[in-house]
Amino acid sequence: MNTRPNSILTFQCGAVMPNRFMLAPMTNSQSHEDGTLSTDEYHWLTMRAKGGFGLTMTCASHVQFIGKGFPGQLGIYNDMHIEGHQRLAAGIKAHNSLAVIQLHHAGMRTPEDLIGEQPVSSSAVEKHNARALSLKEVEQLRDDFIAAAVRSQKAGYDGVEVHGAHGYILTQFLSADINKRTDSYGGSLENRSRLLFQIVDGIREACGPEFLLGVRLSPERFGMKLHESKTICQQLINNYHIDFLDISLWDVFKQPEELEFQDKSLLQHFSDLDFKHVKWTVAGKINSGQDVHKVLDAGVDVVSIGRSAILHHDFPKQVLANANFEPTTLPVSETYLRNEGLGDNFITYMKRWDGFVANE
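RESULT FIELD:
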C-alpha cells in the first residue's frame, strides 16, 4: 500500500481531510486557569492549521473540573468555555483544517493542588491518594463526557476525540491493574470497557452521524495489555460507529514490551486489525519526512505529529515539498520556539523535555 501524504481522506461521517497530517493533541499549559481559551493557545493551534495540518487537534480538554490534568489546561466542562472554543474552531477551519477537540479527564493523575480535593479513579489508588468513584459518579462522568461533546459541536468543531490513553481516567477503567471494582464497571474486559463504549455510543446518539468521532488508546503502560487493547479496538470498529482510531504507540517503530508478542512490531500488530470503514492514525516519534512515508506505507491512514509540529508549524508543507525533510536539530532557543508560535508557558513546559530547549 502506498498512501501519498497529500492525498485527500474522507471519513465515514463525511468529513474530509485535505491531506494525511494530524496535529497530535499536546499538553501546553497555555490557557487560563478557569479553562477558558487564551490568545497564546489560539495562536499556537491556528498557526499549525495554517501550516498545513489537515486535522488540528486541541490539547486534552477536561470534561469535569476535577479532571484537570495540568495547569493552564483548556476546559470544555462548562458553557462559559463555549465562546473561546467558537473562536478557536473557526480559526482552525479558516485554514481548511478539520477542527477536533480531545475530551479528557485525568482521574488519579489530577494534581490534588489543582482541584483542591482528592483526585478520583476507577478504584482507590494509594500511590496517587485517589478515591474510587461511586456508581452514581461513574454515570455522571459518562454523562459529562457526552455533554462536553455536545458543547464542542455547538462551538463549531468538526468532531471530538475521546481520550482513552496514557493512564488517564478511561485507561484507569480499562486497566485490570488499576480497576478493582466489583460492579458492572469492573472485573471482566467487557465490564472494564463498558464506560468507554457507553461514552462513545452516547456521543454518537447526541451529536448525530455527521459528527467526526474518534478514540485514542495506548496499548502499553498503566497495566494495559496488548491483546486487550486490540480486542477493544476491534469492538470499537465493529460495533460503535466511530470514524477513526488514534493509537498512541510511544514509538511507532518499537517492538511490543510483552515477550509473547515480539514476533512483529507494535505497528504491525495493529495493522493486522480489520479496520473496515474506520480510519486510523498512530503517534510516536514520527519526526522526519521519511518516517511519514514509512508509516503511511505500512497501511496507516494518517500520521499524528507531535515533536516535529512544535519545531515546525508548517511540517506538512515541508514534507510535501521534500520527502526527505529532517526537522531542525535540538536543542533550539526560546526565540526559535517563540517564532514557531509557542507562548512563554509552553516554552517553560518544553524545558521538561530533556535537551529540547537550549540553556540561554
